[in-house]
Structure formats: C-alpha cells, structure tokens
Amino acid sequence: MGVIIINFKAYREGSGKQALKLAEIVEEVSSKVDDYIAVAPNFLDIPEIVSKFNVDVFAQHVDAVTFGSHTSRITAEVLKEKGAKGSLINHSERRLRLADIDFLVSKFKELSLTSVVCTNNVATTAAASALSPDYVAIEPPELIGSGIPVSKAEPEIVENSVKAAKDVNKEVMVLCGAGISKHEDYITALDLGADGVLLASGIVKAEDQKKALEELVGLR
Amino acid sequence: MGVIIINFKAYREGSGKQALKLAEIVEEVSSKVDDYIAVAPNFLDIPEIVSKFNVDVFAQHVDAVTFGSHTSRITAEVLKEKGAKGSLINHSERRLRLADIDFLVSKFKELSLTSVVCTNNVATTAAASALSPDYVAIEPPELIGSGIPVSKAEPEIVENSVKAAKDVNKEVMVLCGAGISKHEDYITALDLGADGVLLASGIVKAEDQKKALEELVGLR
Amino acid sequence: MGVIIINFKAYREGSGKQALKLAEIVEEVSSKVDDYIAVAPNFLDIPEIVSKFNVDVFAQHVDAVTFGSHTSRITAEVLKEKGAKGSLINHSERRLRLADIDFLVSKFKELSLTSVVCTNNVATTAAASALSPDYVAIEPPELIGSGIPVSKAEPEIVENSVKAAKDVNKEVMVLCGAGISKHEDYITALDLGADGVLLASGIVKAEDQKKALEELVGLR
Amino acid sequence: MGVIIINFKAYREGSGKQALKLAEIVEEVSSKVDDYIAVAPNFLDIPEIVSKFNVDVFAQHVDAVTFGSHTSRITAEVLKEKGAKGSLINHSERRLRLADIDFLVSKFKELSLTSVVCTNNVATTAAASALSPDYVAIEPPELIGSGIPVSKAEPEIVENSVKAAKDVNKEVMVLCGAGISKHEDYITALDLGADGVLLASGIVKAEDQKKALEELVGLR
Known about the structure:
Four copies of one chain form a homotetramer.
Chain A: E1 3-7, H1 17-30, E2 36-40, H2 46-52, E3 58-59, H3 76-81, E4 86-89, H4 98-111, E5 114-119, H5 122-129, E6 135-138, H6 150-153, H7 155-168, E7 173-177, H8 183-191, E8 196-199, H9 201-204, H10 209-216
Parallel strand pairs in A: 1-2, 1-8, 3-4, 4-5, 5-6, 6-7, 7-8
Helix pairs in contact in A: 1-10, 5-7
C-alpha cells in the first residue's frame, strides 16, 4: 500500500492537546493497515508526540541554517535529536528559496532524515527531483483545502509529475496532495503512479478525525 | 535586583541536551539570588524545559497568525498551552513588520503572555513603546555578539532608550542587551535606568556556563 | 485644501503608457484646484513621468540599503537623483520591518525626500509617528480596495489616528486611505482632522480616470 | 565568442549618471568585438539606458506577479514595454522561491523576454535547468566579489554545472560568474564549456571601467 503523511498545519484541531489526540488516532489506525502513516505537527508538539506514540513524526519545516547565532531558527540537528523522522520542505505555505531547498536536502542526507520537498506543478517537480530528495510532494495550490481531489480533478498532473520526477531521478518517490480525503481518491493517486499522499484538512478538520482516517485507508 | 533573559539562539551549546543542562544551571543559580532569570530556548526544547525545571521559559519568536492553514507557523495560543511565559518579538535576527509586532503585542495581552519587543535604537524603542508591550529590549546591532557591553560602550543609548520608552508609555519596562557578560556591566545597565538585560553568547557560549552566570549575578 | 497621493500600484491601468496618461490627467486636474495632488507609479515609469509632467512623483517603496552589493535594490539616493519627491514606506502590500522603516525615515530626512509611512491602526500610527516621518498614512487593511470609505465606515479610526499621531509628534501630517473615491469622503476625512488622503483603485481603476479625479476634488 | 552580462547591482559606480556613463562604455567596447555584452542596471536607470544606448538591457530582478494590487512590484509586462531584453532571476542577493522562478521563466517565454536564472552549485543548476530558462548562471556564493575567479578556483564546478544543465535540458545556455575580471579567466570559462560570464564588481568597481572591460574582452 501507500504512504500517507498528515500535515497538522497550525489548525486548532491539530495543535496542543488536539495534536496528541490526533497522533493517538493515527497510531491506532496505522496498526490495522499496511499503509505507512506519519504525522507532521507543529514544532512545540513534536517532542511529546515522539515520546508518547509509536508513529513517525515529521516537522512541517526546518530552517536552512547550521548551529549559530540564529534566533528563532530550528536546525535539522535538533530536529534529529528530538526523534523526528524528517520534515516537509518548501510547503506551499512556507515556500523556500531554491538554494535553501538544496541545502536542506543535502543536510538531511547527512543526518539520515527523510526529506519531503513540496512542489506546485510538473516543472517544479522535475526541478526538485534534480536535488535528489527522498520524496517530492506535488500539490497544485489552487486545489489545497478545496475538497477537490487532485487525483480526480487533474489526474494528468499526477501522472506527469511522477514521470517528470522519475525521468530526472528514478529513486525519488512521489506523493500527491490537495483535496484528498476519500479512499477512492487515495487509491486513484496510487494507480496514477504516486507512492502516496500528503494531506491536511481532509483528516485534521474532519468532524470525526478517526472515522475520516479509517475511511481514507479503506477500513470503513 | 534586575531581570535577566538568556536567549539560547540556535547555538549548539543551547540546543537539545545542552539546552536542558543550561536550563538546570539557570534554575540553580536563580534560586540563590533575587534577580529574575528566564530562558529563551528554541521551540523544540521548550516543552521539556517547562516540564522539568522551575524557570520561566520564553520563546525566541512567535508567528503573527491565528489558528488556521499556516504550515510551519507557531501560534501564541499553543505557546501558552505548552506553559511558556512569553516570547521575544522582533529580535534583530528575526525582525518583524510593524503591523505584526502590534498584532503579537495585542494578542499576548489577551492571553496573559509576556511580550519582549526587541529594538535597535532610541527611535525604534519609542515606536515599540507606543505599542505598549511588557518590555522593550534595546540592542544596538553592531554590539551583538561583540563582547563590548552596550552599558559601557554606549551608556547614553541605554539612558536615552529608557527615557524615550517611558516618555511614550511609563508602564513599559526596558531591558538592554548586546555584549553584556560581566556583573559590572549588568549593574551599570540597572544604574542607567534599565530594568534588566537580555543576553546570549556571554552565557550560552561561555566555556563554563555556570561560572559565567554566577559571575553575572555577582555570586563570584 | 488637502493632500492627495495616488498610488498606481502594479495596476495595468497605471503602468507603462497608461501611467503616463494618468500622470497627464493628474497634472491637468491639479492645475485647476488648490489641492496638492501627487502620483506614485512603479519604478520603471518614474523617470519618464518626472521628466514630462509637472507633478510630484513618489515611489511606492524604497529599499533600506545604501549603495553596495545589493542586486535589485533601489536606494533613496538614486530615487532622489531621478527627481522623485519621496516615497511611500511600509505600504500594506509591502510591509517593512520596524528597523527598516526607521532607517528609511532617517535617510529621507538627510536627502530631503518626503516620507509617507503607511500604518494599519491607531497603535501602529502612534508607533510610526514616534519615528518622525513627514506623513503617516493610516489604511485599515480590511477596507483597502473595498470601495467602503474609511472616513465613513470608521470615522473614529481616522480621528483617533490623527490624535495618536499628533500626541506623539505634533509635526507629523496624517493621511487616511482605503475605500476613498468620492468628494464627500475626502472632505469628511479632512473634517476628521486628516491632512489628506492616499488612494489607488478609486482613481486608477475608474472607468473614466479623469472624471473620477475631477469628482474627488469637487470639480463636478 | 561569448556572452557577457554586467550586473550594476546597487553600486554607486553603476547608479544614476554613473550607470549612463558605464552603459556608454559598454556600447562603445561592444562595437569593437564579437562578444555579446549586455548591462543590468537598477530599475530606475533602465528606461534612460534603453532609450540612449545601443545595448541590450536586463533587469536585475522582476517580481512574480501579474498586473494588480501589488504596490511596489515590477511586472515582466512593464519591463517588456520599457524595452528591456530580459532579466536576471534568483540572483544570490535576491533569491526567489522555486515556484516563483518557475512562474517567471514561463512568463518570460510568453513575452519573449530572456531569462537568466542564477544558481549556486551543480545541484541547483540542474534544478533550474529543468525549468527551461534561456540561461542558467552559476555563481558559487563564496567567490562573489572575492576577486578569485570561479573558472580558476573551481573549474570543476563550471564543467559539472555545464554538464548537469545540458543533461537536463540541452537547449539551456550556461554562464558562470563570481570573481571574474581578467580576459584569461573569461576565456577559461568558455573553454570549460560555459557560454559566457556574469560579472559585476570586476567591471563596475574598477578604477577605470573602460580599461577593465577592454581587458576582459582582450582589446588590451
């Protein structure tokens, strides 16, 4: 089956106590399926989720700096020490400069952290793939939070992104995102060649988060 | 006596296990003096320091957003829930837009968080004071990390900042920073009218952090 | 009468040949009234408007740098050399860091350029006023481009901004903006204590720009 | 022979009257050699240089926006209307987000403007090349302004960048930059496979700009 990364964003329903509750749901559902399900909470919630739950934890962003005089910045080294698995990089709500994406992807390799570089179209997916991250995650910005699944609305963008990414670097895995919440859309994404999905509101803002996640992975 | 806030920045010596060790030192030294000593570690180290040590914890920055679709951003609400006392705002290494400083100062008041707005000269100190934060912290950028104490090199900037801040809003407390590490410089800052100091490398990068802090507060 | 500054933004109707046409309209209307009417086109259109029309030209932004290795940045010195009168600073679509606003206001004084610092509420108006610019221009962001005039929708924000600005520095002149296009709203702004208005879409995107400007100043 | 683009940056020696003087030198030297020599002055100097001199003019940056409510932003459309040939994109002193580089490269194609995307190493050169700009210009940041020519100090970075760029897209032309000022270094760059060079201080800050440019192209 596929890869599922849930971005908690700065949603109230994915912050603080709610982040812990959602991480617990992910742990439980995860134990019943073969899919790999990871969570991406905000920095402040990462340590407690890492220590309490058996689930891989990603950051939503890391800063392109090394240790030093950089007030407020989060280094990949500390993220690693805190037990995170990796991080999203260049999310559409936190776009990075090309040189910084490259810096982070290289550093993640050294530290054995998993890099998930977000992109917005076929051309930027090819460009990101040239940097050899572990994953690229293509999310057409106009569909983010829309409830319209990219795998249904723009299947060709998924197929072409997979092709573009693998043409440049066949090791890179490809996620797709934006608007995905139903099992059918998830399966369609896999059928189109994606290795998995990146999602947020479909689960985090669902009235019943557990039910939403069970539906996504086909348990209901 | 005075207020001392120690900014751990992204220094290796103030990150991860080293952050915990330094927080423990602060707790211990703090118990022996009347000065108020608080720490400002990176986001990932905040929760563990809050739960393990009897010391007030500040963030180094908070984002000017409310709950929502803001990947990677840290809200004041979550910071509060995690037990932090407040945050630095507009540090010279993370300057903010004027409208965002105002947004954060207002929000901190609602949430009973302590706001420490950093400034770089007399004019910006007056401007920040007009927003009515709890503290303004004046740090001439050219002296940050220089080892040259602002209270000795530019006493008039401390005096004039205190005057400018209190002229605009007499409730605002004033810290000064940049280059301070010795007891004498700290006392001079208080004599010049400051309510305390904001410092970083003088303690965090000291060969013996405990000794450095004890010297700062006059225990040696 | 009052001060009117027209921000051409990056509107198609205020760019290139259209910028020249609009500047000509401003020159013509300006000659018939006692109001001071200035234009703020994009950088590329500034030199030609300065050389062809008898109208004061402001930039929409200047960078907080001095001459040096700053690719793409525009210095106040070059702006001055090109014949501009001054610049907007900190417009809501180009918010600046507090330290940079202060840097620019100081530099404008040295160069005898006119500084117009934009703000978003009463508190930031007081803060900006503490930096002693020539003008502060208060524009509630929620009304920008709304067609709802700030002088009618939130008269108290205009009055309170004028009071807050003058309390801090009685030399500072106050403009208000957002949603203003009719003569009545302009006059109301002046009656509320403002020295003038900053506007954009009301004139630039009007079907008949000349008619719109004539109406604004009461010629129709 | 090769391509030479001279970035005037915000250097005093390449601003205002000095920009005009330098553009005139470029026009004159250019007429004596087969090399293609273009200039990249700041926005305010572009219109006058375009109208007065027979030399191709590039901007140092363009904003990733279309016409609209974007105070201070420069659109590619206006740049085109003003007679510029193209623009640098993503210079190390004005790094852009990956999605914005892609936006600009696509837009430049539609408008028949020439895109020169700056990069900092082999990996980002490959990534930029995947976006199919007209040129990529590789400049190792540590050598910019150093006086140490990249073609001598790091010949392999030039060769590998050329190879990486052409592997991804064989149509893309490759410039190299950083530290180049002598004819020998320019020729070495061409020998290493580059199509030309991007330079700045070597010419703009030379004591005798004309002599420096003549030396670069081998006229002395």
